[in-house]
Amino acid sequence: MTQQVFARIAGTGSYLPEKVVTNDDLAKVVDTSDEWIAARTGIRQRHVAADGETTGDLAYHAAVRALEAAGVQASELDLIVLGTTTPDLVFPSTACLVQHRLGAAGCPAFDVNAACSGFVYALTIADKFIRSGAAKTALVIGSETLTRMVDWNDRTTAVLFGDGAGAVVLKADTETGILSTHMHADGSKKELLWNPVGVSVGFKENEPNAGVRINMSGNDVFKHAVKALDSVVEETLEHNGLDRHDIDWLIPHQANLRIIEATAKRLDMPMERVVVTVDKHGNTSSGSVPLALDAAVRSGKVQRGQLLLLEAFGGGFTWGSALLRY
Ligand code: ACO
């Protein structure tokens, strides 16, 4: 009988750009306030990449930290998957740029665009490579420079987003690791959360930033996010024959504290067992789940052997979860 192989997190890392923009800073630019932003979203500040600092730079720093934590050399990697919706270039993929910088030549490296679910999608793909025996050591990254798409004059979106990256190194393990992953998408709701320009559709020459901007119907996205996350959490528990009280830590996408609280309520989970970092960096899209995970690991909250539930929801719509024994 062939032995079951799991993908286990061997190390985590993250990186936030140096520049911090507080809610009070934003209130000087648009008609908003720290009270409004904190009450509606839980966000207090966000990090903004410096001029010339790219998604690939953030990803590289997070990856180096994850490799160090795992005690793995870049040359040992046999897969790199990077979730992003703000790649450095149209091509090559940001994963290829990071691969070169790490000195990990030869292994497959590619990007996954699932907006805010990018890391959960990337983790799922890497898990399947490891389970199938196609890879033994994988680097999974979520990295974004979302502020490059932000219209700083639009208070409905400018207050929400930030830049950042997180990464994990996965190693094949015969004992335990990722127990299940669940991915979903619904392309019919495109207009509720989208960026209306691109290479193939074309850019808008007469608009600021060539028309590149986040368009979001916040209220609708909120409702869809809560419903989809409720359902994927149920699906994950049922698939594993678990009770909601079995989960040690919820590590959610950090978009809005009220969405996070709704999922915690569904799990009957006290907020002390939910990792919340949205106050410190806002919505970093693909970067958010691994940023929260790394913060929880490095602070000593998350311990080896504990059961973690990761989940995310984003543009597409896309959503998904991963249940793992850390
Ligand atoms: N400051 C002050 N007032 C504001 C601001 C602001 N920054 N933004 C909006 N308002 C006003 C509105 O104009 C409105 O005023 P009105 O009542 O006079 O018309 C009022 O505040 C309420 O606006 P709503 O949009 O109804 O506020 P809501 O409670 O829905 O909060 C928010 C908005 C925070 C955007 C929320 O809907 C949300 O978080 N949605 C989900 C976003 C999300 O999770 N996205 C995830 C994926 S992102 C990705 O994939 C890239």
TrEMBL record:
Catalytic activity: malonyl-[ACP] + acetyl-CoA + H(+) = 3-oxobutanoyl-[ACP] + CO2 + CoA
Region (ACP-binding), start-end ranges: 254-258
Pathway: Lipid metabolism; fatty acid biosynthesis
Active site (record annotation): 116, 253, 283
Pfam families, per database record: ACP_syn_III (PF08545), ACP_syn_III_C (PF08541)
Keywords: Acyltransferase, Cytoplasm, Fatty acid biosynthesis, Fatty acid metabolism, Lipid biosynthesis, Lipid metabolism, Multifunctional enzyme, Transferase
Ranges for domain Beta-ketoacyl-[acyl-carrier-protein] synthase III C-terminal: 237-326
The keyword Transferase is annotated on this UniProt entry: yes
UniProt cross-references to Gene3D superfamilies, sorted A to Z: 3.40.47.10
Oligomer status and interactors: Homodimer.
Domain notes per entry: The last Arg residue of the ACP-binding site is essential for the weak association between ACP/AcpP and FabH.
Role description: Catalyzes the condensation reaction of fatty acid synthesis by the addition to an acyl acceptor of two carbons from malonyl-ACP. Catalyzes the first condensation reaction which initiates fatty acid synthesis and may therefore play a role in governing the total rate of fatty acid production. Possesses both acetoacetyl-ACP synthase and acetyl transacylase activities. Its substrate specificity determines the biosynthesis of branched-chain and/or straight-chain of fatty acids.
PANTHER family per UniProt: 3-OXOACYL-[ACYL-CARRIER-PROTEIN] SYNTHASE (PTHR43091), BETA-KETOACYL-[ACYL-CARRIER-PROTEIN] SYNTHASE III, CHLOROPLASTIC (PTHR43091:SF1)
Name of the featured protein: Beta-ketoacyl-[acyl-carrier-protein] synthase III
